[in-house]
Structure formats: structure tokens, C-alpha cells
Design a protein that fits this description.
Strand order of the largest sheet: 5-4-3-10-11
CATH class of the largest domain: Alpha Beta
Number of strands: 14
CATH topology of the largest domain: Rossmann fold
Largest sheet: 5 strands, parallel
Helix content: 40-55%
CATH superfamily of the largest domain: HUPs
Radius of gyration: 22 Å
Number of domains: 2
CATH architecture of the largest domain: 3-Layer(aba) Sandwich
Order of helices and strands: EEEHEHHEHEEHEEHEHEEEHHEHHHH
Number of helices: 13
Strand content: 15-25%
Bound molecules: 5'-O-(N-(L-cysteinyl)-sulfamoyl)adenosine, zinc ion
Structural class: alpha/beta
């Protein structure tokens, strides 16, 4: 699939800082050491509805990761998937009497537009589940041949007991895993499974549902976790730097993905860090397509909201916290954007050399975007109160905000 166009990232004077980030697996902050090419995989959308503020907040967090790395003069290999065949997508298509491929294409196109408007840097590889199927089939065959997968009435399941590291990503106990598995696409109560937590790798063709030639697996379609593993291994390989997504993906999705990959390769770990963004809610509940309590990026854009203000609203909350979207969050961002634009619209101002370092330090410190915004607020307040004589300063502030926060002033 094609991704979306990249906005240019201005180069800043001096050198960026190495990223220290919270890793779900160790439960603490780690300093990543990516080498000249940093590798990140971020789980993409299931395209059956438009991009809501929760999605946007999660992609904003990983866009900041890219920007911190680019500022250290590294290259970034960023891979994202599109789950363009899965139960929720097929169910929505049936409910609305539309073709599932058209639904997926339309919502993916809208997602690209939203990401472009928000100035999220595109992935280098943007891969759909359907196009990944030829790579998925041999992985499932290998797992089965190695005894890490088994057949149950034509469906193929992964045996979580095949990976000695199973459980280390989320750190949950068996009861919690079982509950979450039932809630998030698993089938712990299906009779005949070796372990109730075992997830499906390949689902045998069901009447009325799309299916593909699975060679020795028979006709069917891939399970959810193996999709991301196949794409990540193909484009990044084992041991890449960050596996990212919202906190609802820590278990089962990222736990299972890590185990699939570790059982396939015999290597550990799948990713150096598992990074999870908090959940954005509305009216006291997690914003989700299935609940329908959504604020869409595209609807705000249609209402004439400046995408830069939407982006500032996302940046005003720390990526790891759970928070509520309200009209006030957006109103504050609109006001901040106007203040910043006024501050950089003068030819000179107070020196911004320290500001560049403050924003760098804030973001390198577990993507502390609220601290970065506070630093820019302080410079803008000084500009408003006293001004300054540094001719390059407003331009440097603009470039800093653009390069590190993705906001065009
Ligand atoms: N296609 C899979 C990942 S392979 C998927 O989870 N798709 S999704 O459309 O449901 O979600 C896309 C991304 O947005 C995921 O990283 C998910 O964790 C994140 N996300 C979903 N809802 C929210 C929310 N309310 N707040 C923050 N992030 C969210
Ligand atoms: Zn995924």
C-alpha cells in the first residue's frame, strides 16, 4: 500500500538527545541505543470507521519518537500495518450492506488524509494484512512443523507454551490474561485448545467470508497477531527498537506477537521496548469504534478546526496517561496556537537557544510533550512581555516546534 506524503523536517542546530522511554515489559524507563538506523513498528488501524482522537493521540506519540530520532541524525525505518481483513471490519460491512474491501479502502484513504493534515511522518512501509498473506502462510507452516502450532477442526492455533518468554511483555497473571483474551478477540472457552490463551494463527474458510489459498494450511485467513509479526520480521527483523501501540494492545496482541516471533526464530527479544500510549476517553469511557463514542479528526477538520490546533491538543497530554477529550482541551489548544503564532510573527525576540535544548530534553525524557509545550509557552510569554533583540529567534522557535512537535506555526 502507499502511505501518505511526508512534511519536511527542518534540521536544528546542535545535536538531539537519545530517547529514554517507558518499556511495558520491564515496567521502567530504558535508554534505547538504536544505532544509525532506528527501527520501529507501530500497529495500524482496522479501517472500518474514521480516525478518532484516540487513534490520533497514539500515532502522535510514535511520531514524536521518529522526530527525536531524526534529530539525533539517525535514519528511521518505520513500519505500520493496516488490518484490512478482520472480524470487526467484516461485521461492519455486513451490518451496513457494503463491500468489505470498499469499506477498508475508503477508511484507509481517510486515515491517510487525517495523518497528512496532522503532519504525522509516514511509515517507510505501509502494509495491509491482505497483501501480507503470502508471507504469513509459510510462517504458520513453520510454527506447525516445529510443534509450536496445532490444528483444531481446521483452524490452526499457536501454542503459547512454545515460548519460554510468554507473559513477559504484559507481566499479567493467568486470570487477567484469560479475561483480556475473551474481551479482545480471543476464544479462551473454545473446547479442545491446549491452553485457553492460545490464539488463532490461521482461520479455516467460513461460508460467506473471504478466504485465501493457505497452501498446506487449507483455504482461510490469518489471525491478527501473526499479521503484525510477518510484516515486522519482513521489514525490520528481530530485535528492532520499538513495538508500539495503544495500551489496549499490550495483551494479547503484543504479548502474542512477541511469542510468535520468538518461537519462530529461537531469538529473544522481538523488540527492545514495548511502548504503549494511554487511552483517550469521552464522557468517562474509552473512545472506541465499537462503543461509538467518537470524536473524529475528519469531522473537526470539516468544521474548520486548524489541524495544527488538533495536534497541539494531543501534545498537551502525556502520551502514557489516560485522558478525556473535551471541548476545553481543543479550545485551550486553539488559544495556544494563536499565542505562539503571534510570538513568532515578529522579526526578533528573546534568544531561543535554551528553548531548543529544553524541548529536546523534554521529549527525550519519555516523550514529555506537556513539558515541551510549557517551555515554548515561557518563550512566547517573554516575547509578549519584553520582546528581545535576537533576530533569528522567532525563526528558530518555528523550526523547533515544526521539527520536534510536528506543528507548523
Ligand atoms: N489494527 C489493530 C492493530 S494491529 C488495531 O488495534 N486497530 S485499531 O483501529 O483498533 O486501533 C489503532 C491504534 O489506535 C491501536 O494502536 C490502538 O491501541 C489505538 N487506539 C484505539 N483506541 C484508542 C483510544 N481510545 N485511545 C488511544 N489509542 C487508541
Ligand atoms: Zn498490530
Amino acid at each position: 500500500m502507499h502511505a501518505w506524503p511526508a512534511s519536511e523536517v527542518p534540521a536544528l542546530p546542535g545535536k538531539g538527545r537519545d530517547l529514554r522511554i517507558h518499556d511495558t515489559a520491564t515496567g521502567g524507563r530504558i535508554t534505547l541505543d538504536p544505532g544509525p538506523v532506528a527501527r520501529i513498528y507501530v500497529c495500524g488501524i482496522t479501517p472500518y470507521d474514521a480516525t478518532h482522537m484516540g487513534h490520533a493521540a497514539t500515532y502522535n506519540a510514535f511520531d514524536l519518537v521518529q522526530r527525536v530520532w531524526l534529530d539525533t541524525k539517525r535514519q528511521v525505518h518505520y513500519v505500520q500495518n493496516v488490518t484490512d481483513v478482520d472480524d470487526p471490519l467484516l461485521e461492519r460491512a455486513v451490518r451496513d450492506g457494503q463491500d468489505w474491501t470498499e469499506l477498508a479502502e475508503r477508511e484507509t484513504a481517510l486515515f491517510r488524509e487525517d495523518m497528512t493534515a496532522l503532519r504525522m511522518l509516514p511509515p517507510r512501509h505501509y502494509i495491509g494484512a491482505v497483501e501480507a498473506i503470502p508471507g504469513i502462510v509459510p510462517l504458520v507452516e513453520r510454527l506447525r512443523d516445529a510443534g509450536a502450532a496445532y490444528d483444531l477442526d481446521g483452524d490452526i492455533y499457536f501454542s503459547v507454551d512454545a515460548d519460554p518468554h510468554f507473559g513477559e511483555v504484559s507481566g499479567l497473571d493467568a486470570d487477567a490474561m484469560r479475561l483480556l483474551s475473551a474481551e479482545r478477540g480471543g476464544d479462551p472457552d473454545r473446547p479442545g485448545k491446549k491452553n485457553p490463551l492460545d490464539p488463532m494463527l490461521w482461520m479455516a474458510a467460513r461460508p460467506g467470508e473471504p478466504s485465501w489459498d493457505g497452501a498446506s494450511l487449507g483455504d482461510g485467513r490469518p489471525g491478527w497477531h501473526i499479521e503484525c509479526v510477518a510484516i515486522a520480521l519482513d521489514h525490520l527483523g528481530m530485535g528492532f527498537d520499538i513495538q508500539g501501540g495503544g495500551s489496549d494492545l499490550a495483551f494479547p496482541h503484543h504479548e502474542m506477537g512477541a511469542s510468535h516471533a520468538q518461537a519462530l526464530t529461537g531469538e529473544h527479544p522481538f523488540a527492545q521496548a514495548y511502548v504503549h500510549a494511554g487511552m483517550v476517553g469521552l464522557d468517562g469511557e474509552k473512545m472506541s469504534k465499537s462503543r461509538g463514542n467518537l470524536v473524529f479528526v475528519s469531522a473537526l477538520r470539516r468544521d474548520g478546526v486548524d489541524p495544527a490546533a488538533i495536534r497541539l491538543a494531543l501534545l498537551s497530554r502525556h502520551y502514557r496517561s489516560d485522558w478525556e477529550w473535551t471541548d476545553q482541551v481543543l479550545a485551550d489548544a486553539v488559544e495556544r496556537l494563536a499565542r505562539w503564532r503571534a510570538a513568532v510573527s515578529r522579526p526578533d525576540g528573546p534568544s531561543a537557544d535554551a528553548l531548543v535544548e529544553e524541548v529536546r530534553e523534554a521529549l527525550a525524557d519519555d516523550l514529555d510533550s506537556p513539558a515541551a509545550l510549557a517551555a515554548v509557552d515561557r518563550w512566547a510569554a517573554l516575547q509578549g512581555a519584553e520582546g528581545g533583540t535576537d533576530e533569528g529567534a522567532p525563526g528558530l522557535v518555528s523550526r523547533t516546534v515544526d521539527a520536534l512537535l510536528g506543528v507548523a506555526l
